[in-house]
Specification:
Elements lengths: L1 E5 L4 H13 L4 E3 L10 H15 L3 E5 L3 H7 L7 E3 L3 H9 L5 E5 L4 H13 L6 H14 L2
Parallel strand pairs: 1-2, 1-3, 3-5, 4-5
The structure holds D-ribose.
Amino acid sequence: MILIASDHAGYDTKEQLKKFLKENNYEVEDLGTNSKESVDYPDFAIKLANRVIKEKTLGILICGTGIGMSIACNKVKGIRCAKVSDELEAKLCKEHNNANVIALSSRLPQSLCNSIVKIYLETPFSNDERHIRRLDKISKYECQ
Ligand code: RB5
């Protein structure tokens, strides 16, 4: 189950992404927000982050820039949230960083958001020793 959430600024992009994911046979759970009424992005980022950790799954967050969502999400232990702006980053954030969440800006074209999400979900972690070593260093620091 892929988890998705946005603030008001990301609402339209989230709705379109849900449709795209379902068309591509992904199961998706929407954690809100449910309208364009103003909300606070940390509420949704932290809610999604905790579910990603608990369920060992992947998440997609959208706000106006992707920045607030990524900052908030990365405060949750075990989260590696990448703010992604293009298709190469979508690939490398999984291959190298094993990102378990991506954050997108609602200012990106919808077709690019769809493409980013597809590439991110389809790309596996490389499991290369050097990448594992680097991620372990982050986990160790986090657990201090
Ligand atoms: C909301 O106005 C806006 O600040 C938010 O969507 C996001 O861009 C924050 O980083």
